[in-house]
Amino acid sequence: MGDRNIDALLSEQRRYPPPPEFADANAGPGFYEQDPDAFWEREGRERVDWFTPFSTLREWTPPYAKWYLGGKLNACYNCVDRHVEAGAGDKVAFHWEGEPVGDRLAVTYADLQRRVVRFANTLKKIGVGRGTNVAIYLGMVPDLPVAMLACARLGAPHTVVFGGFSADSLASRINDMGCQVLITQDASWRRGRPLPLKPVADEAMTNAPGVRRCLVVRRTEVDTPMTAGRDLWYHEASAHVDDDAANCPCEPMDAEDPLFLMYTSGTTAKPKGIVHTTGGYLVGVATTHHYVFDIKQSTVYWCAADIGWITGHSYIVYGPLCNGVTSVLYEGTPDFPDKDRWWDIVERYGVTVLYTAPTAIRTHMKWGPEFARRHDLSSIRLLGSVGEPINPEAWVWYRTHIGGGRAPVVDTWWQTETGMILISPLPGVSTLKPGSAGRPFIGVTPSVVDDHGYPVTPGEGGFLVLREPWPAMLRGIHGDPSRYLATYWSRFPGDYLVGDGARVDDDGDYWLLGRIDDVMNVSGHRISTVEVESALVDDPTVAEAAVCARPDELTGQAIVAYVTLKGGRDGSRQAVATLRQHVAEKIGRLAMPANIVFTPELPKTRSGKIMRRLLRDIAEEGTLGDTTTLADPSVVEEIRTRAAAAA
Ligand code: WTA
Question: Name one GO biological process term (predicted).
Answer without folding.
Answer: acetyl-CoA biosynthetic process from acetate
